[in-house]
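User: structure tokens for this one?
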Amino acid sequence: MANLASNFLGIRSPNPFWLASAPPTDKEYNVRRAFEAGWGGVVWKT
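Assistant:
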């Protein structure tokens, strides 16, 4: 399998696929589920 790891401005990610700030990232348990499902990162609303 290809290595999709990325490094952007010092932020390392296992892959470039991130969830945007939206209901799937509004609670901590949803973020944990996203990482367990293989997403590379999430953007939380600030």
